[in-house]
Write a structure and sequence with these properties.
The protein is an alpha/beta fold and 415 residues long. It has helices spanning 15-38, 42-81, 131-134, 140-146, 215-228, 242-251, 259-283, 300-306, 309-325, 347-350, 364-371; strands at 7-8, 86-94, 97-106, 110-115, 120-126, 151-157, 160-166, 174-175, 188-190, 196-198, 205-209, 232-236, 254-256, 293-298, 331-337, 355-359, 387-392, 400-403, 406-407. Helix 1 packs antiparallel against helix 2, helix 5 packs parallel to helix 6 and helix 7 (259-283) runs parallel beside helix 9 (309-325).
Length: 415
């Protein structure tokens, strides 16, 4: 958020407007009392003039400042309730005797801005070295609660801390046919009008969630969109789900479910990656525009139950190799799990999964395994099927709310 674009918060910045309205109301009341006491009909005309002109003047001003005033007062109350300022009382002598007034010793420099285009509301705090300003570093959740929203980004820069909150709640898109799929840029998959995933810039994927969370439907949507992006997709399904087989094969992807078929598919994918690596070395470049290849493995845990130990270990190593080395060779991996157990996905491998999605309501431990210990306290505050949290490396600074599209049965086969 640029400094010149934000509105600067000031202590009691609307006090003059409120005092003017108060004096206007008092003047109206005074005229009314004079009319009651003296019964002068001329006072009625004065009341009408003062009332109409005041209503027009203050009404127009209020319409202009209403939104700014509402936000400013909320933040002002927040600053006072949390004692993020410092002041002292000064005694003064007046006509009615001694009275006290507040003198501000320190008040935080806060700016705020709304961006409808980005669907974001920004609060920017000047980190001036004051202990009061430092306390804003722990105010993400209280501020989110104040505005009844969620924090989608935290930006730390020289001398400033900016919180970015969701301006309007995400709406789930409903797909009845392919025409309802939101438009996206090159190498992108749109989950909603506000949420896209660039599979090339943010490669490799982890999709996890409990049964009934909408994980399978989202997986189908991702496969469909990858195919439409011209990517060769290989889907490994040790569960041998009939409906998924039917969907994948109808999309034009490769479906494998038997132990030997899965092991062979993973081996050949890794060999293709290494072949491309040799080609790059021979040419002397780091990247080339190879035909993208996406290997999606649904339930590595299930494969560990049906495969021989050696086969499973060899397959797991090859998948890890693809995750670590595949990006520049245009070979990608996607892992679908009910639970992102670290015994199946090591921390080093997880950190190379550029897009991580957790569907439904999961435990603190599951979120920690999926997103890392820095984000162990994240929560999905929504309850709809298809809701969850997403983290895209290089895009998000923290996991944020996610809402997968609702896809009617057979919609992806209807033009």
């Amino acid at each position: 958020m640029r400094k010149d674009n934000g509105k600067i918060l000031k202590n009691n910045q609307f006090a003059l407007f409120e005092a003017s309205v108060f004096l206007w109301l008092v003047s109206l009341l005074g005229l009314f009392l004079f009319y009651i006491v003296f019964g002068n009909s001329n006072l009625i005309s004065c009341m009408v003039v003062v009332g109409v002109s005041g209503t027009a003047c203050f009404g127009m001003v209020y319409l202009i400042i209403r939104e700014t005033m509402k936000i400013s007062k909320r933040i002002e109350k927040f600053i006072r309730r949390n004692k993020l300022y410092q002041s002292h009382l000064v005694k003064k002598q007046g006509l009615l005797g001694e009275w006290k007034t507040e003198k501000m010793d320190y008040y935080p420099i806060v700016e705020y801005k709304k961006s409808v285009q980005d669907n974001a509301f920004y609060i920017r705090i000047r980190m001036d070295g004051s202990p009061h300003a430092e306390r804003f570093k722990d105010m993400e959740k209280p501020l989110a609660g104040l505005f009844k929203t969620v924090c989608i980004d935290t930006i730390v820069e020289r001398g400033y801390l900016t919180y970015s909150f969701e301006l309007r709640k995400q709406k789930q898109i409903r797909i009845k046919s392919c025409k309802d799929i939101p438009q996206a840029g090159k190498n992108e998959i749109a989950f909603s009008h506000d949420m896209v995933w660039n599979w090339k810039r943010c490669p490799h994927m982890l999709l996890t969630g409990n049964t009934g969370s909408g994980k399978t439907q989202l997986a189908e949507y991702i496969i469909f969109r990858l195919i439409k992006n011209g990517i060769k997709v290989i889907y490994c399904d040790p569960k041998n789900d009939y409906e998924m087989r039917h969907f994948v094969e109808n999309c034009g992807a490769v479906y494998v479910s038997e132990e030997n078929e899965i092991a062979k598919a993973v081996r050949e994918t890794e060999e293709e990656m290494r072949k491309r690596d040799i080609e790059l070395d021979n040419i002397g470049i780091r990247e080339a525009d190879f035909q993208p290849l996406y290997l999606i493995f649904d339930e590595l845990i299930a494969f560990s139950k049906i495969a021989e130990k050696k086969t499973y270990e060899d397959t797991a190593k090859r998948i890890a190799s693809i995750v670590v080395m595949g990006r520049s060779k245009r070979v990608y991996a996607g892992l679908i799990l009910q639970r992102p157990d670290t015994s199946f996905i090591e921390g080093a491998i997880r950190d190379n999964l550029g897009c991580r999605i957790c569907m439904g309501q999961m435990s603190d431990t599951a979120y920690k395994m999926a997103f890392g210990s820095d984000f162990a306290d994240v929560k999905n505050l929504r309850r709809e099927i298809g809701s969850g949290l997403i983290y895209r490396q290089g895009v998000d600074t923290k996991p944020r709310e996610f809402l997968a599209p609702y896809i009617e049965k057979g919609a992806l086969s209807r033009e």
